[in-house]
Amino acid sequence: MGCYEEVVTIGKKLEKMITGKTVDESQGLDLLKSLKALPITLDILTRSRIGMTVNNFRKTSKNEEVGTLAKSLIKYWKKKLASTSNNSNNNSEVGSNPKSDSSNTPASTSSSTTTTTKYSSLPIKATSTTNAVRLKCREMLASALESSEYNVDFNILAAAIEDCIYQEFNNTEVKYKNRVRSRVLNIRDVKNPQLKIDVLEGVIPPEKIAVMTAEEMASAELKKLRAQLTKESIDDHQMASQGGTKSDLFKCGRCGKRDTTYNQVQTRSADEPMTTFVLCNACGNRWKFC
């Protein structure tokens, strides 16, 4: 078993303890010691997100030795991450402009900043939590946001988005879960890559993506199609309402009155039910149903 597989296995065991009712402190301590002994690279840290798991386990554990060891691991990994990042930046600068010490011309400066990697600096914040549901939601969002083209802390960005959603509902019930799930599905949508790019580059900040509707998150192509279908529906509705039947069977969702005119049109195949178009004569609200 390779180092990455061992780290993933340990991470799963720690997550199981976090979500469980009881925490085996001695087993958790042994797992942390195993992590400390492994030669974990930056790539493994990024792919496995073991740092977030260890930090969450530290928060749920009441054992002082576990907390101390977890903190030391996280501190060591942070230093390693910062050191690797600095070395990478220095090597990039030196490699792209080997004559930088003897030349300060604009041309040399331009060549030293050329890179194929996209970077993003996001001033984002999120409150910490030990709630298992919220932590799982943050993990799902981080997984959806992951991209090798961006030097972004996906965990922090995901935590900020989740925090904005939680602040709106102040609970982790159905509406909260549905909101998180819709963000994950839309960000992962391969037919709408621009949404993920906008979130990672900060064009769409956490507080905005947290409240966007499905229509707002849709791709430009889908928005255009929806607009076209809506226009066609309105045109059909307006044509049908001219010879409609007045009725008090329908209640307007806008004004609450039952002064309506309706008409039924076969908009789909013959074996499908007819579509009913309704017009509120009081306020002009229009709707349809099958």
From TrEMBL:
UniProt main location, coarse: nucleus
Gene3D superfamilies reported for this sequence: 2.20.25.10, Conserved domain common to transcription factors TFIIS, elongin A, CRSP70 (1.20.930.10), Transcription elongation factor S-II, central domain (1.10.472.30)
Keywords: DNA-binding, Metal-binding, Nucleus, Transcription, Transcription regulation, Zinc, Zinc-finger
UniProt-annotated location(s): Nucleus
Annotated ranges, domain TFIIS-type: 248-288
CDD domains on file: TFIIS_I, Zn-ribbon_TFIIS
The protein, known as: Transcription elongation factor
InterPro entries cross-referenced by the UniProt entry: TF_IIS-typ (IPR035100), TFIIS/CRSP70_N_sub (IPR003617), TFIIS/LEDGF_dom_sf (IPR035441), TFIIS_cen_dom (IPR003618), TFIIS_cen_dom_sf (IPR036575), TFIIS_N (IPR017923), TFSII (IPR006289), Znf_TFIIS (IPR001222)
Function (record text): Necessary for efficient RNA polymerase II transcription elongation past template-encoded arresting sites. The arresting sites in DNA have the property of trapping a certain fraction of elongating RNA polymerases that pass through, resulting in locked ternary complexes. Cleavage of the nascent transcript by S-II allows the resumption of elongation from the new 3'-terminus.
GO molecular function: DNA binding; zinc ion binding
One Gene Ontology biological process: transcription elongation by RNA polymerase II
Domain TFIIS N-terminal: 5-84
UniProt GO cellular component terms: nucleus
UniProt record similarity statement: Belongs to the TFS-II family.
Region (Disordered): 83-120
Residues annotated as domain TFIIS central: 133-245
